[in-house]
Amino acid sequence: MTTEHRRNWSIGLGAAFLMATSAVGPGFLTQTTVFTQSLTASFGFVILVSILLDIGIQLNIWRIIAVSGKRAQEISNTLLPGLGLFISFLIVLGGFAFNIGNVAGAGLGLNVLFGLSVENGAVITAILAIGIFLLKEAGKIMDRFAQIMGAIMIILIIYVAIVAEPPVAEAAYRTFWPQQIDQIAIVTLVGGTVGGYITFAGGHRLLDAGIQGKSVLPQVTMSAISGIGLASIIRVFLFLAALGVISQGLTLDAENPPASVFKLAAGRIGYALFGIVMFAAAITSVVGSAYTSVSFVKSFHPALFKYQNILVIGFILISTLIFISIGRPVKLLILAGALNGLILPITLATMLIAAYQSKIIGNYKHPIWLTLFGWLIVLLMAYMGGFTLVNQLGDLWG
Asked: Number of structural domains, the chain?
């Protein structure tokens, strides 16, 4: 393997971890435990369906971005002037909303570990995240940081899942023969794993590192699948940990479901492990959200591109200040989560149309099976996303 190939594979792995750790935030941890509590072993089916949809989404989008050498907003504007600006607005707005929750989650993790106030923990988190983008090799350091934090989360969650002694056979059976199917759970998982800014975290990171063109498609494909695989490993073992606790007849704390899973499974040590996992999940999501959201606006003007790290730092600072001043805006977070289910079919449909525009992708031939799978996902997510949004808006104001 040549030096260039090793570099490409290394960057691809970094992009995969950036995507995965961007997906695994406080909301990811909470969603998984809450849905396990309501669906029990049948939640395995929801995870399976979401993984298949996630792979179809990422393979389509990452390949088209890599071949075109353009970011999603640039592709969108080429198709229809102004569309890229509209999509960027939606994604940055959602990124801000979720980043406030990410900052809060990291503060909670430090509160569990060291007894700090959540607000002080949020400030420390912001300082650490900003520190990454003040360094000269910010991109490489961000990749390595995501890899280390991701590995920590995987190891600790697997440990808790083993200690919880879940009914693995039942979980495996219900993954293929569920007792109930919850489409809201499917939309929430897909939106939370590859919705909004997360869809483009890895693809844009590859472009920033100079990974583009048809020749690198094998690395791009492997990176996309690896990103989904990493996030799915965390999801599956967290599901098994929660299922193990629930199967013992224990009740999760409604105020903090994921924390109670760790505590009930492994006692005080488990609660400390939750603090580490929550902090790792949240701070990597802070970094990923800020980096990817800024990647959607920096191409609109050369000055923005030049000062992208400053924009990322500003993004993190504003998110932190909003959390400290007004707390976590629950309604905004709920609505932003539902909107992800609608943003996804818009962005995916745009990429699929672009895949057949020679002015964007040149002489590249996008696989027919990926196109058909992609359009099926667009239709499913548009229908289920609309249904979910209507239901959540009804719950929010009804």
From this structure: 1
